């Protein structure tokens, strides 16, 4: 694994005063380090994590692995907040690639001390643009953390990546997407149920009304939830899902 530089205890990270460098692990396991300007085209959505996801007794945060329908593999997370955010990335139809702990970012602060930071996620969109994501509740962003996030945002601006600092997402959206995520695997895309569902919901209909029109609800509902996950059908996830939720045609991934 690529190791971070140690910041001196009690020191301020400060704003970056010298060029950024990145270190990352390629798919073949090789560890690479180069200037950020030379690494802007690296497919970080395929990079391996630069640090391990530690697990130990009495751990306050809860790490784990999220199986991603977007990548077809597991993506690590270090807390439930990160789990919710990677789930929402997986649900985003514009996202085509995701990696966790994609690189170490290095720079020198005003104090001339070397500083490092590993963002939580890197995501690639279908138009080729990228977003770098850090997850931290607003109440847990101390001065040193904020300085690192600001430096990361500045680095992303240099190479044209979007930067997002995310806290807790909308709980209603999370509950709805978590439910649909239970049907994200392609094994739930079953014919002949999928085609009748797309035909039934060619015009907006309440969820259960359309499911009953397409076949036996117990057989078609898992397929319907998969089509909602994959955005072939659409529903408003900003309000609680229920039997009368309006389902309409969507845009396939």
UniProtKB/TrEMBL annotation:
Say which domain of life the source belongs to: Bacteria
| Record protein name field | TnsA-like heteromeric transposase endonuclease subunit
Q: Species name for this entry?
A: Streptomyces halobius
